[in-house]
Amino acid sequence: MTTEPYCTNGLPPAPAVSTKTMAMAGLLVDVIGLEELPADEAAPTTCLWLLHPRTRTRARMHDIARRTVDAWHQQQPQPQRRGLVALAFDMPNHGSRLVSPEANQTWRDGNERHAVDMAGAVKGGRADMSALMDLVAGYLGRRVDAHLALGWSLGGHSAWQGLFCEPRLDAAVVVVGCPDFLGEFLVCALARLVCPVRNAAKEDRG
Considering only CA atoms, which of 154, 161, 4, 146 is closest in space to residue 87? Predict the structure, then answer.
């Protein structure tokens, strides 16, 4: 599983923005931009939930988080009337939550249950985000009134599910994600079942 620092290709290193790891509802959550929030604790806060790709960890999203939070502050009037924090947690069976490395592999890598394992991670990631939305204001000590999501690959599938299932999610950015991931994986799974049968039939006729 890849955990090394990531920098977006073609860009200079991300600006320095505060990062604090907090335990929230049994999950380790990296909060980027907490120290940069407005001094007025009554100011409303927007949470940007960052959902990482398969075989990566929450650390993969730090680069995006720092660039986004810094860009937000660059365009805000002073004194700021709204704050923004980016939050990243490990998706199910990834990083600090890893229980089965094999379950994160694909069919090509020998995981015959890839479809159901992916479905579990996608749905679980979306459910984790919703559960954290319930509680994040208490952990941050701030008035949270808006939620955004950015999902990448595995996280992109979960971001789509958030748009469908989580009414508090105001908007989402999806990078390589499918709105009908279950249909996509069902087609792939059926193709894996049908192709060997067709090949066997051809051999019988040959």
Answer: 146
CA distance 115 to 113: 6
- Could you read off the pLDDT tens digit of each residue along the chain, which spans 206 residues? 766 678 888 999 999 999 999 999 999 999 999 999 999 999 999 999 999 999 999 999 999 999 999 999 999 888 889 999 999 999 999 999 999 999 999 989 999 999 899 999 999 999 999 999 999 999 999 999 999 999 999 999 999 999 999 999 999 999 999 998 777 766 666 666 665 444 444 444 44
From edge to edge, which strands make up the β-sheet containing 27-32?
19-24, 27-32, 83-89, 44-51, 143-152, 169-175
Q: How many contiguous H segments (helices) and E segments (strands) does the chain have? A: 4, 6
Spell out the domains of the chain, with CATH numbers in brackets. 19-179 (3.40.50.1820)
Q: How far is it, in rounded angstroms, from Cα 137 to Cα 99?
A: 29
